[in-house]
Amino acid sequence: MEKRLRIAVQSKGRLYDETMALFAEAGIKLTAVKRTLLVPSRNFPVEFLFLRDDDIPGTVADGTADLGIVGLNEVLEKGSAVDVVKELGFSRCRLSLAIPQHIEYNGLQWFNGRRIATSYPVILRKFLNENGIRADIHVISGSVEIAPGIGLADAIFDIVSSGSTLVSNNLEEVHSVVESQAVLIKGAGVTLSDDKAAILDELLFRFEAVKAAEGRKYILMNVPRQKLDEVLAILPGMKSPTVLPLANADWCSVHSVLDEKMFWQIVSRLKSAGAEGILALDIEKMIL
Ligand SMILES: Nc1ncnc2c1ncn2[C@@H]1O[C@H](COP(=O)(O)OP(=O)(O)OP(=O)(O)O)[C@@H](O)[C@H]1O
Ligand SMILES: O=P(O)(O)OC[C@H]1O[C@H](OP(=O)(O)OP(=O)(O)O)[C@H](O)[C@@H]1O
Ligand SMILES: [Mg+2]
Questions:
Q1: Which of 40, 122, 174, 274 could form a disulfide with 227 if both were Cys (CB 3.0 to 4.6 A apart)?
Q2: Protein residue closest via CA to atom 15 of ligand 1
Q3: What is the ipTM of this complex?
Q4: How far is the CA of 15 from the centre of ligand 1 (A)?
Q5: Which ranges carry the ATP phosphoribosyltransferase catalytic domain (predicted)?
Q6: Global pTM?
Q7: Is 140 in a helix, a strand, or coil?
């Protein structure tokens, strides 16, 4: 039987969409089986094991899945024997301590003797121990941010991203403990078979190509030959911009790749230097 790399992914929730989008951009398609736990790809030797995110680190650690995609926060909380193979750059958030607004906060000592509600007791306990804080940890599995408002706790330790959940619950972030993002994990110290290692290499190669293209634009413009040097001096090309002749010999077409942010910084300079018909196109993949 053909070897497939088994990857545990979240079945639904915040990680699901971006995880599936990453595989789609990497050209990896699923067979159209809905509501199945184990779904093979129809064009790449992987199969997806759809799970709740809490179960992903353990499933990878015990070898049921070869790889997993999960938030680093869950990896740290579960303490499972897994290694991070690659940081994937999405679902960025942090685990932070937050207290009711308008409380006079005098630093971490404030937490001494307080009750802190959280779904991440392991990470919190470790942090408190390291900082010599003795506090009560009250474990709840969801809606942590309402705990202070209903008198269940004095403070919370929870996921923060934009901070809007805290604001709408009259809470203030006072200390960020862990930065998290989605990560690709494998069993700690596990050596994959040659077949599976080759599939993982190809997967990582494709993820790199997708990532390299993110935030980059392919730009094209028409430039009078006389102004070519001036325009080229403005462009920070990957290596060197491509210059192509046009039907009108006085003009040429200049192509380059640049950061989207950079595009806005230089577009008016390119125009003033004589460039016309400037186009900026999305890049789907980029192999460096
Ligand atoms: N607001 C946010 N912004 C960015 N990333 C987030 C945010 N909230 C959570 N995450 C990340 O996404 C992961 C999954 O969040 P989600 O809310 O889907 O988890 P869940 O409710 O525990 O899901 P499951 O049903 O699979 O157990 C979190 O562990 C965290 O890494
Ligand atoms: O800082 P913010 O941008 O507001 O994000 C933080 C919130 O996002 C997550 O909840 P989510 O929205 O996934 O809802 P949930 O409580 O159902 O998990 C997390 O549990 C926080 O409450
Ligand atoms: Mg969960």
A1: 274
A2: 14
A3: 0.96
A4: 6
A5: 52-206
A6: 0.88
A7: coil
